[in-house]
Amino acid sequence: MTSDAEGSARLKRWIGRAALGDQAAFQQLYQATARCLLGIVLRLLRDPAWAEEVLQEVYVAVWRSAPAYAVERSQPMTWLMAIARNKALDALRSTSAERAALVQPAAFDEDGETALPEAVDESPSPLLQLLEGAQAARVKGCMQGLEAAQRQAIALAFYDGLTHAELASHLRQPLGTVKAWIRRGLERLKKCMDVGLEETAR
Length: 202
Hints:
Layout: H1 4-19, H2 23-45, H3 48-65, H4 76-99, H5 125-130, H6 133-144, H7 148-160, H8 164-171, H9 175-201
Helix pairs in contact: 1-2, 1-7, 2-3, 2-4, 3-4, 6-9, 7-9, 8-9
């Protein structure tokens, strides 16, 4: 049986690899967390079809935000659940008027909890649309644009889940230096990704 610590470590690795453009890791992250995140979205939206739509938006946000995920600030499921909740609330705010007449009452189980679908549709088509080669190439290209020290520190943090202190020991550098590498590297990575997204949207 997998412990909470092992499960959390696995999620961290998948998020880290997704941040570097690893589509297989992102698929594993999706399969491991989709049912839980769908439950959060469904409890807010009370409409299974709408919840499925918003769930895809959740994973688009996860893919784009993965490079900025900070291991030391929050547990992976806490981070993922916050994204799911925010996307659901955004959907409610932006389309409440349009969907007021379409939202159906939620189904409840014997314990009074919102009933979830028996299984989450794990068809890869929405993810494959999201993870087109251009997106993965953009992440890799942005990583290559970082200074070597920044790239190494970020890769170690994401792939191996090392904390700042562990990175400092591993790289034999002062803690402040390692923190600066990661902070500046993530800032540059975010700017590079944002520019790429703007160009795609044009």
